[in-house]
Automatic annotation (TrEMBL):
Organism annotation: Flagellimonas eckloniae
The keyword Glycoprotein is annotated on this UniProt entry: no
Record pathway: Purine metabolism; AMP biosynthesis via salvage pathway; AMP from adenine: step 1/1
Identification of the protein by name: Adenine phosphoribosyltransferase
GO cellular component: cytoplasm
Record note on quaternary structure: Homodimer.
Length: 170
């Protein structure tokens, strides 16, 4: 399937100079949504995944679907102050600012195999912070899985050593 035709560019969002990759056209098409999920799951290969970590907020769209297909649990990583139980946090830089992510302290057990999923790999700060959170809890990140990778922002450099897969690359 030509997934690229379901991604639209939004100029100057969320700030001037940024070209935002809008995935909502893909999400509203049932066939494209199902096929994207199947393709993302197919990228996991032979890994036995215990948990799929979805990143706030668009990572929450596919991560639970992928977890269900892989017979794994889903773990949300959220922006600071959004999770109700005990958390650990990691601060990071992103393309247009700084932020902090949190994960519940009981979300991942030592030795669990973890797939990290988010919608876009841009500068890599978000995904790197998530990998650090997983590893602080004793989990093993076996793959970072994205709907879109923006290669010109060199985000993969911050994920050196991790297996990175993306449905689309720009």
């Amino acid at each position: 399937m030509d997934f690229e035709r379901y991604i639209r560019d939004i100029q100057d969002f969320p700030q001037p100079g940024v070209i935002f990759k809008d995935i909502t056209p893909l999400l509203k098409d049932p066939q494209a949504l199902v096929q994207a999920c199947e393709t993302l799951c197919g990228m996991v290969k032979d890994y036995a995944i215990d948990k799929v970590v979805g990143v706030d907020s668009r990572g929450f769209i596919f991560a639970p679907l992928i977890a269900s297909k892989l017979n794994a649990g889903f773990v949300p990583v959220r922006k600071k102050g959004k999770l109700p139980y005990k958390t650990i946090s990691e601060s990071y830089s992103l393309e247009y600012g700084e932020d902090t992510l949190e994960i519940h302290t009981d979300a991942i057990q030592k030795g669990e195999k973890v797939l990290v999923h988010d919608d876009v790999l841009a500068t890599g700060g978000t995904a790197n912070a998530v990998c650090k959170l997983v590893e602080k809890l004793g989990g093993e990140v076996v793959q970072c899985n994205f709907l879109i990778q923006l290669t010109f922002l060199n985000g993969a450099d911050k994920l050196n050593g991790y297996d990175i897969k993306a449905l689309l690359t720009y």
